């Protein structure tokens, strides 16, 4: 759109021409249009001071333009503001120079890239051709500041709407001479050069020109004809009507477009009154039409047709103004309501910030969440990042008081708090891991070897993958504590959660966010707590999973513990996939038979059988005793527990496979020693070591109370209050420190204690020695007696080996005859046997009859005797498929009246054909045999490899026979000198 300079810009331009002597009033845009209407219709006002119906502007020439000044004086146009009788024809701001504009028949051609220059309008252009610029400056100095301004034609084949203005300006200065001449439109405008500042040349249009021929190529100079408008009748009703419509349309546009109002005011002030040709030029010049439409108006010499073309352009401007108004209204409606509230909240937030009252509002929350994800934005999966961005946008649109806002905030809190792609640096040093495992645990060779294998594979690959290891064994063998040691050896974060009794699937998979109080599952909570994506997760008591109305947690764990699925674990709360493939899962169970098959199939089971007596001795001496002594605040030189006492403690009090009960018994010993020390006045690390005689009683009482509290805390003994009731008063403390002690003591003893304090006499406390002789004083009577009930094995009694959840144990099978009679042979069972053992007894009865019939056909024992088979310990349920051999041997011993060897124990199941089936729990049963001083064990041949893999200290002193058929057991049991029994 053609630039029309504002009033301030115009004043700057006029400083190069003349200072205008103006009579200007401040009418509105409507009054200006009415002026135009009056000037066109010929109506005039006799008194120009009445409300200023129109404005007159006269321009005087610059002092350098002497000729122009003379012309002005000759025509009687002075610069006096009172020249009210000036002719209307002299209202133009364009004052002719000497020579006059119509005398210029040869002019320099200036190409215009964007729009044509209309008469009466200013236009600044940039002239980058130095030769052309110098010619213009020279022309201005010669008092002939005129040139021809011609619009540049578009390049053929190129859409002018696509070519940018900068490209077009760049191209026009590349044309020279004839090429430029051919690209110019024929009709242009005679332009007066008002000022030249650098490359900028300001032009003002005078009249229309038509190019006739080229005179000079550089700079381009052309011959022109001055064009005049065709004659028209200014009283023609059609022309008037058309002009009125143009004015009415302009008036409507002016209501919405402030820029047009500036144009009207500037034009009327500096150019003069409107007439029909000027109205047509004005409307076309300030419209937003393209340059070809404006060129068409410039070329039109018929005033009526020109008005019609202008009317068409301003009508289009009116439509554009309506569209603009509708767009503005639609945008304004969108800002109402929530948008208005948002703006008010933003203002309120800014005010609070200035006052220092800014709270944790939505913006602060968004900033906090973005700061969380910014450091690891590259590591977060694209899908998760998209969800976070969507939730952040949603958070800004929600009201802080709505329930949905809290749900979204909590959801973002969990999403941004997870350690996406953050892994801890693992340590693949096998030697270091070995030292850590040995430092924390004694024995457990199988578990340590498996962990070292895992580390070795990670070192060779350079990266570790998550595994699922299940540690199976009796309670107290260190399954849970070894998980911490593995995490420390691998330099991984450790997290433990127990699933014992768990019956809600949501604890594993999380709740749906639609529920009130919804939370993610344990695995997501683990990742948030540890802060890394590759922790060691210990799932404790996995064999004790519950099953309730909320689903089956064992089935929910399938996805969590499946190496093929947990790379895209889906929590119901987060609802985005989480990569758990780098997590090392360690599960613990007492009995793997209680674990569902599909879940067990995903684990690698490592069995921890338990500890033999030698291992328990090392554990008690190197781990348990040291930790207990430190927790009770007792020094090493104050107590000595002999090896014999520890051995007796293990054999008679702690026979179970684990060491938890052994730790309790050791703590019991040290607690009693701690109590004994406190009663004797031995206080380690006391804040006050000595009380001076003569201190105030109140102060000494406070010291005594502080010392007593310190002892109570360090020893963790609930019965320290007996210290007050004791007959012996500590030697290092004054008697009056112990409240109530003097009241319960005799006067002589009281005086004796005071005398010791005053004389400064201290009795040295002797070192406490715990031996087999006084062990019962600390832990009570023995709980277990020797598992060997019989020194000499009676007829019909055989020792078997059993496995329990607490480890291995020996199990006697006893058989006796109740009643004799021909054909009365039968079998009666007692001992709270399970279905499997009852079936084993029936099979044993049948096999024993067959073997006796083969060995001694004349013996009718099983056909004529009613037998009673009993397994001692009726209060303990017993079941398992490994008692068949023992039962057969017991029946045959009674039938043949031969006792078995006293140092023999056996285990194994027998088929009806006499084949021996493999058994489980080889290590536990071997440990139980050693504990019972058994020297010979009979195992199935199928378990030979299991036995060979045991540690040498477990097998030490044992003779093991491996059998395939019961006939071999028969020979080992009865083919010996009975006098040795």
Automatic annotation (TrEMBL):
Reactions the enzyme catalyzes: Hydrolysis of proteins in presence of ATP
Binding partners and assembly: Homohexamer or homoheptamer. Organized in a ring with a central cavity.
Domain Lon N-terminal positions: 107-318
Ranges for region Disordered: 69-98, 732-754
The UniProt record lists the keyword Mitochondrion: yes
Record's protein name: Lon protease homolog, mitochondrial
Bias (Polar residues) ranges: 734-745
EC number: 3.4.21.53
InterPro entries for this protein: AAA+_ATPase (IPR003593), ATPase_AAA_core (IPR003959), Lon_bac/euk-typ (IPR004815), Lon_lid (IPR054594), Lon_proteolytic (IPR008269), Lon_Prtase (IPR027065), Lon_prtase_N (IPR003111), Lon_prtase_N_sf (IPR046336)
GO biological process, alphabetically ordered: cellular response to oxidative stress; chaperone-mediated protein complex assembly; mitochondrion organization; oxidation-dependent protein catabolic process; protein quality control for misfolded or incompletely synthesized proteins
Superkingdom as given in the UniProt entry: Eukaryota
Residues covered by the Lon proteolytic domain: 792-976
Active-site feature positions: 882, 925
Residues that hold ATP according to the record: 473-480
Pfam families in the cross-refs: AAA (PF00004), Lon_C (PF05362), Lon_lid (PF22667), LON_substr_bdg (PF02190)
Primary localization: mitochondrion
PANTHER family with a match to the protein in the record: LON PROTEASE, LON PROTEASE HOMOLOG, MITOCHONDRIAL
GO molecular function: ATP binding; ATP hydrolysis activity; ATP-dependent peptidase activity; sequence-specific DNA binding; serine-type endopeptidase activity; single-stranded DNA binding
Swiss-Prot/TrEMBL keywords: ATP-binding, DNA-binding, Hydrolase, Mitochondrion, Nucleotide-binding, Protease, Serine protease
GO cellular component, one term: mitochondrial matrix
Location relative to the cell: Mitochondrion matrix
Role of this protein: ATP-dependent serine protease that mediates the selective degradation of misfolded, unassembled or oxidatively damaged polypeptides as well as certain short-lived regulatory proteins in the mitochondrial matrix. May also have a chaperone function in the assembly of inner membrane protein complexes. Participates in the regulation of mitochondrial gene expression and in the maintenance of the integrity of the mitochondrial genome. Binds to mitochondrial DNA in a site-specific manner.
Entry similarity comment: Belongs to the peptidase S16 family.
């Amino acid at each position: 759109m053609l630039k029309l300079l504002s009033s301030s810009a115009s004043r700057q331009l006029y400083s190069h021409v003349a200072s205008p002597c103006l009579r200007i009033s401040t009418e509105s845009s409507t009054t200006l249009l009415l002026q135009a209407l009056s000037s066109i219709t010929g109506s005039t006002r006799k008194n120009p001071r009445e409300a200023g119906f129109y404005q007159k502007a006269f321009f005087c020439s610059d002092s350098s333009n002497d000729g122009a000044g003379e012309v002005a004086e000759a025509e009687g146009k002075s610069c006096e503001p009172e020249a009210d009788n000036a002719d209307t024809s002299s209202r133009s701001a364009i004052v002719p120079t000497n020579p006059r504009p119509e005398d210029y028949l040869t002019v320099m051609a200036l190409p215009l890239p964007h729009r044509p220059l209309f008469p009466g309008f200013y236009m600044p252009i940039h002239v980058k051709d130095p030769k052309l610029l110098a010619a213009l400056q020279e022309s201005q100095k010669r008092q002939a500041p005129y040139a021809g301004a011609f619009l540049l034609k578009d390049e053929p084949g190129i859409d002018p709407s696509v070519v940018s203005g900068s490209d077009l300006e760049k191209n026009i200065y590349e044309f020279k001479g004839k090429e430029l001449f051919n690209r110019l439109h024929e009709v242009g405008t005679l332009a007066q050069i008002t000022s030249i500042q650098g490359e900028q040349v300001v032009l003002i249009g005078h009249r229309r020109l038509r190019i006739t021929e080229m005179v000079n190529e550089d700079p381009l100079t052309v011959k022109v004809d001055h064009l005049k408008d065709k004659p028209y009748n200014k009283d023609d009703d059609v022309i008037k009507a058309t002009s009125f419509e143009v004015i009415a349309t302009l008036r409507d546009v002016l209501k919405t477009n402030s820029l047009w109002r500036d144009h009207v005011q500037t034009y009327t002030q500096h150019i003069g009154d409107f007439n029909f040709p000027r109205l047509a030029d004005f409307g076309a010049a300030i419209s937003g039409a393209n340059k070809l439409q404006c060129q068409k108006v410039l070329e039109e010499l018929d005033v009526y047709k020109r008005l019609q073309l202008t009317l068409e352009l301003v009508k289009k401007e009116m439509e554009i103004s309506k569209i603009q108004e509708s767009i503005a209204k639609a945008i304004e409606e969108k800002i109402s309501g929530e948008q208005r509230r948002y703006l008010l909240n933003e203002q309120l937030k800014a005010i609070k910030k200035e006052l220092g009252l800014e709270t944790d509002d939505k913006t602060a929350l968004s900033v906090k969440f973005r700061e969380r994800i910014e450091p690891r934005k590259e590591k977060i999966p694209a899908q998760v990042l998209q969800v976070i961005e969507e939730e952040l946008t949603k958070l800004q649109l929600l009201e802080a008081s709505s329930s949905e806002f809290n749900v979204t905030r909590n959801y973002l809190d969990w999403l941004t708090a997870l350690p996406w792609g953050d892994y801890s640096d693992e340590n693949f040093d096998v030697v270091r891991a070995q030292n850590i495992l040995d430092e924390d645990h004694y024995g457990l060779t199988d578990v340590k070897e498996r962990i070292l294998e895992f580390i070795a594979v990670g070192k060779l690959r350079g990266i570790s993958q998550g595994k699922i290891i299940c540690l199976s064994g009796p309670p107290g063998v260190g399954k849970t504590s070894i998980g911490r040691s593995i995490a420390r050896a691998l330099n991984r974060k450790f997290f433990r959660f127990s699933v014992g009794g768990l019956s809600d699937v949501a604890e594993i998979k999380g709740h749906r966010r639609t529920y009130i109080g919804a939370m993610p599952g344990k695995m997501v909570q683990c990742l948030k707590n540890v802060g890394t994506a590759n922790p060691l997760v210990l799932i404790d008591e996995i064999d004790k999973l519950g099953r309730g109305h909320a689903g089956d947690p064992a089935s929910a764990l399938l996805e969590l513990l499946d190496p093929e699925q947990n790379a895209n674990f889906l929590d119901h709360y987060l609802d985005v996939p989480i990569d758990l493939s780098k997590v090392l899962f360690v599960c613990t169970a007492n009995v793997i038979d209680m674990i569902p098959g599909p879940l067990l199939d995903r684990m690698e089971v490592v069995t921890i059988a338990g500890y033999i007596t030698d291992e328990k001795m090392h554990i008690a001496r190197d781990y348990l005793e040291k930790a207990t002594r430190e927790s009770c605040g007792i020094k090493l030189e104050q107590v000595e527990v002999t090896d014999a006492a520890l051995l007796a403690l293990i054999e008679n009090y702690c026979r179970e496979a684990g060491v938890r009960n052994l730790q309790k018994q050791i703590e019991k010993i040290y607690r009693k020693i701690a109590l004994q020390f406190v009663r004797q006045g031995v206080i380690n690390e006391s804040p006050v070591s000595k009380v001076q005689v003569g201190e105030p009683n109140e102060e000494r009482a406070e010291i005594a109370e502080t010392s007593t509290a310190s002892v109570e805390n360090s020893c963790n003994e609930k019965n320290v209050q007996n210290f007050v009731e004791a007959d012996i008063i500590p030697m290092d403390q004054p008697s009056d420190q112990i409240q109530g002690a003097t009241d319960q003591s005799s006067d002589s003893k009281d005086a004796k204690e005071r005398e010791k304090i005053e004389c400064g006499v201290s009795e040295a406390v002797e070192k406490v020695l715990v031996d087999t002789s006084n062990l019962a004083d600390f832990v009570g009577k023995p709980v277990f007696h020797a598992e060997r009930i019989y020194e000499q094995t009676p007829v019909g009694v055989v020792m078997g080996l059993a496995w329990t959840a607490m480890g291995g144990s020996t199990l006697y099978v006893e058989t006796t005859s109740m009643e004799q009679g021909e054909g009365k042979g039968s079998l009666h069972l007692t001992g709270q046997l399970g279905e499997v053992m009852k079936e084993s007894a029936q099979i044993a009865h049948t096999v024993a009859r067959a073997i006796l019939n083969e060995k001694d056909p004349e013996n009718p024992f099983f056909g004529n005797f009613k037998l009673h088979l009993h397994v001692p310990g009726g209060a303990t349920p017993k079941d398992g498929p490994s008692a068949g051999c023992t039962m057969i041997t017991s029946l045959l011993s009674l039938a043949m009246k031969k006792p078995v060897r006293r140092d023999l124990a056996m285990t194994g199941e027998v088929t009806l054909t006499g084949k021996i089936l493999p058994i489980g729990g080889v290590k536990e049963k071997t440990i139980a045999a050693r504990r019972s001083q058994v020297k010979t064990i009979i195992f199935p041949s199928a378990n030979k490899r299991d036995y060979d893999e045991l540690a040498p200290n477990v097998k030490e002193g044992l003779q093991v026979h491996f059998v395939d058929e019961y006939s071999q057991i028969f020979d080992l049991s009865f083919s010996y000198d009975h006098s040795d029994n």
